[in-house]
Every structure is written in C-alpha cells, then in structure tokens.
Amino acid sequence: MTRVLGVPVRRSTPLSSGVARVELADGRTVVVKDGPAVAAEAAGLRWLAVPGGPPAPQVLACEGERLVTAYVPAGGASSEGRDRGSRSASSRPAMRRVLVPLPAAASELGRRLAVLHRAGAPAFGAGPPGTGRQAWIGRAPMANVPGDRWAPWYAEHRVAPYLRTARDAGDLTADEAAVVERVCARLPELAGPAEPPARLHGDLWSGNVLRSAAGEAWLIDPAAHGGHRETDLAMLALFGCPHLDAVVAAYDEAAPLAPGRRARVPLHQLFPLLVHVVLFGRGYAGQAVAAARAALQAG
Description:
This protein is of the alpha+beta class.
C-alpha cells in the first residue's frame, strides 16, 4: 500500500476475501481490493462517473492486481440491506455489507440512472475506454465484444457462453438448456423496440447500491459495458431492491421506458442468473430456467 499510494498504513480491516478497509497515516480511509478483475473495475468506475449520474467511489490508484478507491461511509443501520456474507438462492456472496437507499434516495437514484444510461456507449458490448475484450462480472469472466444490434449480441455474448459452461458442467440438463436455447432463437422478437446502447453499471443488483452517510445511493463493483438500459433495471429487481417502484417510477419519468418493459424483465435477468449457475452451481438452475420460460411466454 505504501508503494501504491506513497502513504504508510495505520490499520487494515478485512471486509471479505481480497477486500479491506484501510486507514492511512495521513488520515484518509480507503478501500483496497486485490484480484485479476481490478483493472476492469477501475476503468468501469471512471466511465460511470457521469455528471448528474449516480456517484461512484473515486479511483485513487490501480496497479497490477490492486485497486484503491475512496471509502464511502455507510448510512444508518435503520435500512440495512442483506449481509453479503451469506450465500443462498436469493442472495449474492460477500464483498462488503451495504445499506439500501431510503425512498427519497431511491427516486433520486432512478433519475440519476437515467442520466447515466443516456451517456451511452459506442456499441452494445463496448467496454470502458482503454479496456479490451476481457472483462468480469463478479468472479466470472465476461467478454466485451461490440455489436450493433442488441438481440443477437445479447444471445451470443451474454446468454450463450454461460449456457454452454453450465451445461458442460452438468449444472443444466439438456432439456433445461434447450429452453434457454429457444430464448436465444427468438430473441429478435422478444427484445422489444430497438434502443441505442446505454452506459450500464452491468452488475446492478441491490447489493451494489450503497447508501452513504449523506443518504445518497452510490454504485459500487461495476461490470460496466454498453447494453440495454432495461438490463440494469431488471438486475435491481432480481434479488429484491427496497423501494424499487420509486426507482423505476422516477427513471420512467426522466427517460420513458418502452411499452412491455415488465414482461421483458425475465429476459434481461436470464444473463445474470446463468452467471450465478456458472459461479455457484445448480442451486440457481431453477431460477434461470424459470426466467427463460417466462421470457418465452411473454413473447
């Protein structure tokens, strides 16, 4: 740490595997994360720093496999979210304990997400400037391959790779995989009206929304890329986001959503659910297949 920031460490408190809150000798508190995905995360945090968009921690340094960001003091415990240390069919694994936004902050988050998405991206699958094809979503590899149409890009680069991995590992049966394959074949008719590439957080489940001491909703741990704006909103709904109706209502007022959005939520959730099957095994297979069936029925 002294080598990266040039400041001695006073105290380090582990938050989870590879993540620590560090107090520096100059009085600052920072978050330090180690791992192969940190360069992509640093680029994503910088790319998401859109004027008027949701705040994200400032990148202070990124060298090799170490990322240092500003520490965002969390808000009061009255609205504490899930402990990310638990693992179940309805929660994500630990990175740090987070606090969900209050209703007013939820509406503000919706408005700010609309600003972020409007900032756009060069193409679907385009990563932040300076990054290549290799990206990450959580601990799973993710390929940022540009495409000019969302439906075929989503099928080829977001659904199919994780479907193949899960099927080959035996975490999806042949019959279950066939349901997902039918979604890929029908994606052009299921996708809804065409939209330009939005600038996505990319892993926007509720655990990646942190309520600061000032009451603002901050975004952490991105898998940023160009995509469909409904994907970020669908991910907020995936594992339960308090005050989600306020988020979506404010978003829809600032940037009206296309008709049929609710019916397309399972389609957009299919990608992160398949990622969960790959990372955590067959415990998520039922949810993934149910999302695929719901997407087909909605179409």
